[in-house]
Amino acid sequence: MKMKLGKIAVLFSVMLAILIAPLMVRAYVLEPYYWKNGVSGLTYKWGSNLQTPGTVIRTAFENALSDWNGTPTPVWFSYSSSSSNTLNSYYVSDSSEYGVCNITYSGSEILHFTAMVNAGNINIGKSNVARSAAGHELGHGIGLDHSTATAIMNSNRDRTRIYTPQQDDINGVNARY
Asked: Which helix (H) or strand (E) segment is 66 a member of?
C-alpha cells in the first residue's frame, strides 16, 4: 500500500508540474529601471531628423507607436512638443545596427528616453524592418530588455515578420506595470 501511495504521489506531482509549468514560464526580460508613474501617459516629440512626415523612419515610428498603443497593456503614447522623450534617426553605415535607445534614469526610475532608428542600415527600407526596429526601441523606452522568445524585443528576430509587439512583450509590460 505504501508503494502504491508513493507512485500516486509522484504521478500527481508530475501531472501538476505539467499543468502549472507553462503558466510560470516567461522569456521576457525587464530592465532594472521603469516608469514610476506607469506607461499610460508617455509622451514623445520628433527629433531633428524626423520633422518631415512621410519618411520611412518617421512612418515606422508612427506605426510602432500605434502598435504599442493597441496592445492589451497600459502602454499609451501621445505626441507633445514639450516631451522629454524623443524619437529620431541617425546614420551609421552598418547593416547589423538597427537602432538604439538611450535611457536617462535615476535609481530605478526612467526619466526620459531617446529612441532612434539607423538610417544607414541598408535593410531599413525593406518591408516592416524599420517598423520592427522602431517598435523594439520603444520597448526599451518602456523598460523591456532583450528577450530570447518570439518577441519584438528579441534582437535576432526576423524583422520582416516580427514587427509588432508579441505576446511575450505584452506579458513583460503587464508584469511590470
From this structure: helix 56-69
